[in-house]
Amino acid sequence: MVDVSCTINGSRQTLTLLGHESTVDVLRDDLGLTGTKLVCGSGVCGACTITVDGTPTASCILPASSLNGTEVTTIEGLATNGSLHPVQRAFVVEDGLQCGYCTPGFVVEAAAFVDHWRAEHGNTDPGSHIVADALAGHLCRCAAYPGIDAAVRSACRGEHDDISSPARGPRVEAVEKVTGSARYTTDIRLDGQLEGVIIRSENAHALIRRVDLAPGVAAGASAAVELLGTDRTVRYVGQPIAAVAGVDRAAARSAAKAVIVEAESREAVIGGDPRARVLSRPIVHDGRAARRRAPISAENPLVPARWIGNRRGPSTIRWRGMRAVRRIASARKKGDTRLVELHVATSVQVHTPLEPHACVALWPATDRLQVWVSTQAVHHIAKLIAKHFGLPRENVEVIAHHVGGGFGAKLTLTAEVIAAVELSRQAQRPVRVVYDRAEELSVGGLRPATDTHIALLADAAGSLRAMEVTTHADGGVSIGSTVAGLAPMVYGRSPRIVRDYDVLAHTPPGTPFRGPGGPPLAWALEQAVDEMAITLGEDPIALRRRWDGNRRRHALYDWADALPAWRARHDMVSAGRFRRGVGVAAANWLYFVDPGSEVTVAVREGQIVASTAAQDMGTGSRSVIAGAVAEVFGIDPHDVLVEIGSSKGPHGPASGGSRTTVSVGPTATEAAMKLRQTIGDGPVTPARLAGHEGATAKAQRGKDKRMRLTPFTIRDLQVGRGFSGAVHVSEVEIDTHTGKIRVTRVWGGLAVGKIAVPALARSQCAASIIQGVGFALYEQRHLDPASGAVLTANLEDYRIPQLGDSPEITIHFHEEGWDHVPGGGVGLGEVATLGVAASIGNAIRHATGWRPLELPVRPDRVLEGLR
User: Fold this and answer.
1) pLDDT (tens digit per residue) in 369-393
2) Contacts of 738 (CB under 8 A, 6+ apart)
3) Residue 447: closest CA among 306, 574, 350, 550
């Protein structure tokens, strides 16, 4: 034991330590200063940044024993005399955040930089490059980098020093996030709470002969449960076997090591060409029962398909399909120059939300269950929990007041929830289970790798005559890939046939990832279209405009064609060491809606309150609802209290499939209009509201003006009429000596109708571009080919974009064409990222004459291609 005396946020503290604790654990667990976030645990991401004697420091690698005699400031202590630091105000006003999980670390580091910069340079703008260097140790998976850059630079210019008025920005919860008071699942601390850990398989394939929990209990576990169920087979490294809970995480880990797991190791299928694994032995899911339990990597219901060994499929879509096959085969035989064929591949992309999967369960000696979950679907997860544990739906409450990102990985009932609930039931105490970063990067969710063959045939007039797309997806033990299946929705109705296969392996399962199947499909299709334009000697935008019948995207083609960079692309440098190129890609996405979504608007204690069982994972759901209600009443959105994040509220949509805004935005407007009729016209003052205390109105999303494509509901979802559209134009610079690619500028055009909150929409679209840059250039999971263990299980080895990787971004909205949809607009979170990587690939082809076919486009691949 050692006593450490230090000053934390102006208060003298004496800390009694065992001697080995990290500072972040002491701050969060002992002092309750949960604004400081633990993400990587290795000093890479910056989320846990504090200042020690004025110097920004990563607290996750700082021994707490070194704090003796120091002065420590966390995000909670940054404000002075109740007034936000200028950097905090800047982050609010400039919207330098999304989910907010990384925000405290950014703000603390940025405040130290701004104070130092202004002391030396006065109120001057340091420029984006200096800001990027200053914040190089920080990561934001939401990719809110443009707002962060704007916030830091404007704070340096002294634009946020005035504290006479409250800081107001487009995001109504921003002040909570910049002060560290926003509470995420990982921050929940209940009386008597235990910490749980999951015992995972060390084998890629094994039969579990015995699990003995008793030694774990003897070693100090307060509860211990098995998670295998009736199937005693593990099929990937990291598959859950059991879970234990202890008084703290160290005690739980110690108890977990004592648990005895006897596993009979079996041969595993790992790595290699997915198509070569079809007839490999052993079979990953052998027998009907195992196949029925196979995880699904897509959001859509599973289409029946044939199994052969380790291959499932094809799932086939045809439009005069045999005619397409015959035409392409004939053209191939004749050597027709108007036949373009490409064989392309994409790597596994890992979701990597900075708030890991986390759950706190409280199941007392009754049949009522409270569960705090980092989830994208509070309403849906409550139903799944009730079903899994045999409880009435009304007896389960799922809570997620703030969610630190998800991107599709947090839409289903996952192991941390089951483990926490089971442990809590046994212990009769609250139990928290949180993935560490290695777990998150190994089994937290991924976009399957793909291997695609695409063939496009044009006729003498340059019209599309046939299309054939075949994709083999590698989602580990999961099935349900729909990459090729998205191709028929683009470029007219020429004869076409598309086939999707899943090729299984003993590796972690895929899960839906922002536009499931969309980026890999765009990578294949848009490069083939670009190659066809080169073959035909035609402008790539002109060819797309001619092939594409989507009128909304035609407006985007006109916009893109008029860009000066596109017009000047023939004058770009095509020789020497540094070469520049410009590429274009188009994409579309389905319009999804949850027709059962409800919003209640009421008067409570002199305030307008809007409620629904939705959640906000950084996309701005609170602000969309607040803005819709405020517009009806003629008040500031910040004066509307929005209650979301609890399944006890009215039915709300999941945050997936770009359905949230289109489901709750117009519904909030309708509910507010009903309440407005009760209150009457005129200014909405506290006195008037007091006279209508308790008045309530509810609305349901309901119908569109046109019948939906699927008038029936599946999993709270319907498909509406029309496709949203996107056109991206990217400019790259390539160093032909090193192979390094720098994306310098990207223009994103979106045809999604009326924009609910423009600032948040632009932030989403810019972030989508940056995530697309990561998919194109950096992100790649690596496995040990012998054991199946994930080697890129930290944020040093798994590379995601940082501030310095962000290009200059311009966003353009085409807001027409959705009059049949209440509110006049549809979702944009997915269509905004689909074609980004493809546009970068086409820009590389324009700059060098070499077409990259495999993602990520690493420097070594560039150099090999140029050779």
Assistant:
1) 999 999 999 999 999 999 999 999 9
2) 859, 863
3) 350
